[in-house]
Amino acid sequence: YLQCVSDLANYPLYIRSIPTENQLKFHYTVHTSLDVVDEKIAAMGKALVDQRELYLGLLYPTEDYKVYGYVTNSKVKFVMVVDSSNTALRDNEIRSMFRKLHNSYTDVMCNPFYNPGDTIQSRPLCV
Amino acid sequence: MRNKPIVTCAGDQNLFTAVYSSLSQQLPREPMEWRRAYGRAPKMIHLESNFVQFKEELLPKEGNKALLTFPFLHIYWTECCDTEVYKASTKDDITKWQNALRAHSTTDWLIVVVESEAKKKNKTNILPRTSIADKIRSDFCNKQSDRCMVLVDPLKETSRSQESWSLFLAKLRTLLLTSFTRNLGHFEDEMRTLREKRTEPGWSFCDYFMVQEELAFVFEMLQQFEDALVQYDELDALFSQYVLNFGAGDGANWLSSFCQPVQSWDGLALRKPIDMEKRDLIQKRSANLLELRSYLFSRQCTLLLFLQRPWEVSHRALELLHNCVQELRLLEVSVPPGALDCWVFLSCLEVLQRIEGCCEPAQMEANVAHTVGLWSYATEKLQSLGLLCGLVSETGPCSEDLQRTVDLLAGLGAERAETANTAQSPYKKLQEALSSEDAFEKHYLDLAHTTIEMYNGIGRSRSAKLVGKDLADFYTRKSVPQKAEPFLQGALRMYQSEGWALPLTHTRKQLAECQRQLHQTEPYLQTCCLLAADVNLAVEERRLYYQEILAFAAQRSDHSDDVLCLPLASFAQLVSLRFEPPNSVVHVGGSLSMELTLRSLMPEALHLDYFGGYFHYSLDKNSYRKTAEYLTRHKPVGGSVTFQPEENQGTRGPALELSEMYEKSPSEGGLISTGVICKNVHMLIRTPDTQAAGSSLERNAAISLEDGANTLKCSNITLQPGINQITFHTQAREPGTYSLRQLGAALGCLNLLLPHVYPIAQYDVYSQEPQLKVEPRSECLLAGVPQKLRFTVTTGHYRVKEGDTLQLSNADSLTFLTGGSPSATISTNSNCEVCQKPLSVQRSDKVTTLSLPPAPPYHLMEFELNVVCALPEGGRLLNGEVPRRKERADSCSANVTEQRVSVDCPWSIYSTIISLTFHLPLKAQHVLLSSGTRKYIQVCLENTSVFNFQLSDSSLTTSQDVAFRPLHMAGAQDVYTRQCLYFVWEVTWCQDLPASLPVHFSVNFSPVPFTEPYEHLQPFTYLFHLEHFYTLYTVRAEILPPEDTMFCKTGSLCSLEICITRLCDPLDSEETLTDCEGYRSTQLFYQVVDGGSNWAVCGRSSGMVVIPVQQGTRHTVQMEVMPLFAGYLPYPDVRLFRYLPHHSHSQQLDADSWIENDSVSVEDPSDVGSMRAQGPSLSTVPSTSSKEQKGLPMPRLQPFHPGQISNSSAGRQILVIPSTDDHVLEVNVT
């Protein structure tokens, strides 16, 4: 699967994919999925903030992958791409993975040596 | 015709036929609440029925579970109103019917008796007691009397008829629902049982499917589409779960039938409500996965469309298609290549057309978001089909491709009958698209453009760009790069602006290929160099692009007129820049070097013909005259500029420039608020469009070389991958500011250019006038002591030649010392010492000549000279008199002396005036002290400087015949800073005292500790003048306690006796006023003043006495005073003035020195005394009140000179004891 953190301006902060082959396709997929993330954020509007529901759910399925989205209150976007055939991952697992990812991201932000907006380097941002 | 629940009718068929129409009309008119088992929510449903004639065959046989054909209710119709007839035939008939029902254990029946008024009247012999209905009830409905209904005149519009109708209908509905509930419940139970058996071997999904679908059909029949859909969804989920389990290794036997190879891929068929062919296949257990899925989805689609949820259809369709692809993969079903693509493509279009078929166009448009996924999927699939069948290529399909196409088309089978007449059916489209390249292109472009438009329409620009990229791919394969290019550019710009490196690299690679084919040399090379620098590519690939650039550069190097410009930024990044000298300020003609640090991004060493920096020259009117010092001070230290690495050519936008902000409360000083301010908000908050417009592509287009008037160049540079340093050397020419604007390099016929350099790197060239600066080395200069002066010559543009001299005009009291061997330090402007050279100093009468050693321009020459400023004049007596100079007083109070030296410099015709301020190290004051007729002179010497001095050889001399006998310690004494040293002499004289005595004080001083021997030390001198210092009168005061007591007591009066004695005969100099009474006498005014408020003077405190001017005359005055305090009290002051009657001073209208009357206090005598030393004209400061009363003929008081009165009781004290009765002890506790 693939994880991606992207900031407000859809600039990628962190991309990691396992396995590493076919990375390009993942990148395209994630980038395209930001369309749906944006759409969902726009649709939710204020309600999103009020409800504190950061998980956006399944963004869209493709033939091979499922793309899930998550957005923080500061509009930092997390996207996760999972193989469609991997049925072991249910919604709840995805949700908790996102939450862990969010925590890790918060840790990175707390690092005083981290320059906001930089690509996140060498961080075990894995779930 | 739609299915409806079956209701059988037995009995009188004619009668039923008569009421049938109104019955079937009225039945669905009112809804009925259906309460259901298993906690399902009750529903209001409108019932409809299909009424058929009762036949025994209709009754379901044992084991037949068909629900659709199941009769839910059996009605027996009779019109019988005659008991006889009833008994004869009707009863038997009903019994027979009942038996048939009972045989099939059916309990849902109803007997309807139709009564008609007309018939009743005809038959008069009817028993009025019981009606036929009652009879039937008693015969058949033993406990369910409501199973027999009476319908009165059903065809007439009477109120009775109406009433009976509504009763009947309500009953009918109730019974129908009851039947439904029971029968369906029964069915569901059986179905569930069947489902529970699914783990048993031999269980078949197909069989179960048929059973559950039956239920769905019934719900559909009852128009309960929601419930029907639930049945299908359950089947769907069940099947999916089995497939997943299969994938997990838990396969069911029955699944094997679904694993058979796919041979037909004709897509979904959604136009028929029920696809009976496929249903049959399922029933026969011979359907494959696609067929099952197709059928299932077609049913779901139908139901969803009934439910008016077309958008759910599209969502589910997409999900289904993805799912099917996955499931085929999971089940390892063999599918010919392309078959699935065909199936998906057809299905997408079929779903889209189906939805279009039941929606308004406007509705379709508003819900593009729901359908665009299908469009995009179809496009994708068509493209892959095109690729597979060789339709997307320049050459066209080969025979293998054609064979594959034929196979694929064969798999489509024949077109379905229901779409055969539709022009745009998916089937036709696919067949056409696969038939030829042109047709494929038409269909593909059509689809792709529609999809892009849709994506753009709903704001999914990224998705649109991705489809656009596919399209570009298509065009590239078709060798139509000019059409591919705009799509690639669009995508590239977006990836760039959002910083997605990998897609960016990939797209750029495609773009490079396009540009190469299009022979767009410049853009191609630009792309090439970006790619060659791209770290996301393998080194081999980067080398390839790099070689492309080199090849181009080499190939056309002979045509120098045609030069291409490429952005340097893609070849190398500017890391830092450093000027030497580090302050980046250089004088005209000076040498300057600039060291550039570059990071080459190329994979291999880059050999450049030359590398140059282009400077913009500006003559800043204000700054070009500025000196090196000024420029140096205002430059960042270190002289190096560090450049921000431009990530991805600045697509990221500028970095945040944050600064902290504190706001303090002005009143309390505490922090009110604090925050972070973003300084470059205007840069950050820009719309993405403008940001993209400013991206490097656009900027690079505007590359142009500014005029090369000021360039620094280095030839034959080789940039190794990574960090490189290039050093430029130049000689500064015109003064001004040079800013680095552009960097350029040449590589064969390629010019590499960095059009903007930020932050600004600049150097300044200045031209400077030669300058001389003279300043003391220490904080302040002291007069009288040799001091060091520092000379600084800034040579500027002037070259100091051998023999150049500085001519210093000698001021009268300033001497330049020639001793020692002074040497000048010559250093460059940046304070690098160059050498030390000797300096010769010659002194003549008027001038001191300094011969300067030669020095190059723009250097500093520094040397030090000793100088002595003579102590201010005044040390010498002019003709035995103290020179009276006004300045003396001024300079005394200021304690400084100003010296001016004019210097003639070789570089200027004008003299430089240097002003030096010397401070006097010592300050002297004198006091004349008298004791009777003996006189003493006290000189107080205060060291006002910060140094310590040793004083020696103090002497006091005068021109008069007076001797001074020192009373102080002889020998050298140290006086430390801010300390005073006192000298006292007794004055002795032999003859008459002179009226005026000029005195000259002189003392040698030298700084302590000795640092070096001073040759030019002058003694410190002090001149003062004593006048009228011979004692004329002594005043003696005596306080006597009251006669009967030993001591004075507080509060008691004591007598004060003042005794004034004339000590000498009249003097010539004395301006006596004679009173003609035989004696020359004078009028004196005395005044008792008690400064400390210790005494209260009782009675007059002042008075006038007349004393003959003769030695020894004495006058005594008695007064009474009272001590106010106990203790040793000082005597009150007794002051003596000369009393001048008003008529006697007519010549002396200058009233300054006169005191008007006794109420005016006289200045402090000591103060007056010191003033008097300067001369009589400075005796007293005029008071304002005296001026006002000037000219009035008033008697005046003239104070005596301080030496003229000797107060013998000065300093005396007397013991006063406290009065006995009031012991007041004041204790203050703090």
UniProtKB/TrEMBL annotation, chain A:
Keywords: ER-Golgi transport, Transport
One Pfam family of this chain: Sedlin_N
Principal location: cytoplasm
Transit peptide listed as a keyword: no
Domain of life: Eukaryota
Localization: Cytoplasm, Perinuclear region
An annotated GO BP: endoplasmic reticulum to Golgi vesicle-mediated transport
Gene Ontology cellular component list: perinuclear region of cytoplasm
Database matches in SUPFAM superfamilies: SNARE-like
CDD domains: TRAPPC2L
InterPro entries found in the cross-reference section: Longin-like_dom_sf (IPR011012), Sedlin (IPR006722), TRAPPC2L (IPR044760)
Family listed: Belongs to the TRAPP small subunits family. Sedlin subfamily.
Protein name: Trafficking protein particle complex subunit 2-like protein
UniProtKB/TrEMBL annotation, chain B:
GO biological process: early endosome to Golgi transport; intra-Golgi vesicle-mediated transport
Chain positions covered by the region annotation Disordered: 1160-1196
Stored Pfam families: Ig_TRAPPC10, TRAPPC10, TRAPPC10_1st
Residue stretches making up the TRAPPC10/Trs130 C-terminal domain: 1044-1217
Major localisation: Golgi
Location(s) in or outside the cell: Golgi apparatus
Domain TRAPPC10/Trs130 N-terminal residues, every copy: 3-313
A GO term from the CC aspect: cytosol
Keyword terms: Golgi apparatus, Transport
Residue span(s) of domain TRAPPC10 Ig-like: 771-919
Comp. bias intervals (Polar residues): 1176-1186
Keyword flag Hydrolase: no
Protein name: Trafficking protein particle complex subunit 10
UniProt organism field: Leptobrachium leishanense (Leishan spiny toad)
Species classification: Eukaryota, Metazoa, Chordata, Craniata, Vertebrata
Gene: TRAPPC10
